[in-house]
Amino acid sequence: MSLNFRFAVVSDLHIALPHTVWSHPSRFHMVEVSIPALELVFAHLEQQQLDFMLLPGDLTQDGEPDNHAWLQQRLAQLPFPVYVIPGNHDFETAIPGKEAIAASDFPQYYRKFGYENSQQLYYTCQVLPGLRLISLNSNYFNAQGQLIGRVDDQQMNWLQQVLAQTTEDVVLVMVHHNVIEHIPHQSRHQLGRRYMLENAPDLLQLLQEFNVQLIFTGHLHVQDVAQWQNIYEITTGSLVSYPHPYRILQFHQDDGGQNWLKIESHRVEAVPDVPELQEMSRQWIGDRSFPFMIKLLTQPPLNLPQVEAEKLAPHLRYFWADIAAGDALFEFPNFPITAQRYFAEFGAISPEGKPLLIDNNTTLKL
Description:
Oligomer: single chain
Strand content: 15-25%
Organism: Chroogloeocystis siderophila 5.2 s.c.1
Number of helices: 10
Protein name: Metallophosphoesterase
InterPro entries: Calcineurin-like_PHP, CNP_phosphodiesterase-III, Metallo-depent_PP-like, Pesterase_cyn
GO molecular function, one term: hydrolase activity
CATH architecture of the largest domain: 4-Layer Sandwich
Radius of gyration: 20 Å
Family: Belongs to the cyclic nucleotide phosphodiesterase class-III family.
Order of helices and strands: EHEHEHEEEEHEHEEEEEHHHHHE
CATH superfamily of the largest domain: Metallo-dependent phosphatases
């Protein structure tokens, strides 16, 4: 019997009830729209005959108990199963004066959404006959007490055991931090590597060994589909950042036993208090982009002088917004040749240098 199922991915919700909204002039997340945007998404998804939904972390603004409580109550009202994992914003924030749940509290809130074993931050379950989900916790506190992306040794050992015992035909892995690079040299760049798993190569090697082909992530707030050998990682942009996306996916196994994954992406175009959400949100990122573009220009590999970087940065005002939207192609003909080539690499291009527009809508042959 062929395996067919339909599911949704909504990532980085950053849910913030009005009384919890934290205002800061450089905040990138439009958390004010988190709840109305999510309600519109749920209204759409409830009409889609879904088998389940994945939420790959950053469920709340900054781990506030009230926001977790609201979300778990809202998820319980949906007509399909939901599976969650924690992101780096979901507990133990470092922001002074902010109240957040402890890491050990997280499974208690989400027992109905994957965490039947409330003693650990990762789990596995058979979602459907022939389909297994493995949900990993990538929040790791290093020796300096910093929260980084890493799947710890205990989880890696557990994962190997789970994969060795798995009998299902298809395995999906969900984890918050990126495992495959979504922007050039992400694992080595100062701005990009904090969004990556520190031990991504080890995880990829293990997944390849057991022929796991699909990873679902968030964290980077971009729409992107990346590939490493026969493994695809589908990262979904944030519901509170431009372009406010979410995905509906259809897995299909044909009569010849070939697996296919059809990806459709949707956007929240407006919410009641923000009728021009897309335009306003793009502007929001543009208004906050200058310091980051300066860093991108002055740090390796470009290493441009500050004066030259300040001249070029305004041309990159919407660079990150375009990356976040997915399927972007970049040309900056007035930039120095090295900078032109560097920024072109961020575009949706194949290894052969041709356009490869698969970030939002495509069908993958697995």
